[in-house]
Amino acid sequence: MTGWAAGALAGLGVALGVLVVLSRLRARAVSLDERLAPYLRPRDATSTLLREVSRTSAVVRLLGLHDIGARLERFGAPREQVRRRLDRAGSAESVDHFRARQVVWTVAGLAAGLGLALLLAATRGAAVVPLVALVIVAGGCGYVACDQALTLRVRRREERLLAELPTIAELLALAVAAGESPQAALERVASTARGELAGEIRRMIAEVRAGAPVTAALTALADRSGLPPLSRFAEGIVVALERGTPLADVLRAQARDVREAGRRSLLEAGGRKEILMMVPVVFLVLPVTVVFAVFPSLATLRIGL
Length: 305
Description:
This protein has 305 residues and is an all-alpha fold. It contains 12 helices and no strands. It has helices at 3-27, 32-40, 58-63, 65-71, 79-88, 95-123, 128-177, 182-192, 196-209, 214-225, 228-243, 248-304. α7 (128-177) crosses α8 (182-192) and α8 (182-192) packs across α9 (196-209). It is flat. Residues 49-60 have low confidence and may be disordered.
């Protein structure tokens, strides 16, 4: 590794550290507007039981990751979209905490890229520009990996919700058919069942006990999930509560539809896996079979010649 390359990489690391320190020192300055804001902004009349609690940790506030994440927000999804994805993932963390976690993942990617760049510079003597590009790409990969991890959490939770929906619907149908009201049936299922959907129902019941209308809580449950079957499930209960329509048959029909949709998705997944299983057969097993079949003939022809 040449001396100027090592010096350039060391200077890059020092410059990044100085920029982080300067940005933090600048963020500590409190403007006049921020000082007057607590006395001039209107008071929120919403009950404290229904407000979103900020779960930003002390370490995040101490390191200034909150401010850095807010500045990096322009490169990612909007704040409302991130909040919706966190709700769909069943996470109680705030958007600021998620942005701070993205900053941590980005810094980890930059550190990994810097270590790899130093290793390549020491062993191969690579140029500075590709090494700097490698560090930047590694940091971007860390930023994207955090976002993709949230997407994977959302997908897995939605799969669990769809798997639990038929059972919950059948339990509600049995409770309603036995003579209980829809709200009492929901409370019974929430107290006896376990799982992601039961947790959502318990959250809905907590909102009702805090003062929210039942229909509004059910609508919020449908909005948080983002799944069409679960939205139809909540809308069916809302219609039954508002118009007095029979609910047991609707819930059984919804459970049957969800099971049919799950069966179709399994058949589609099986068809895709069947096509993927042909890849090793065509590109691995078949060439080896052809080689074993042709090689003795080629060896015999070579001996004859």
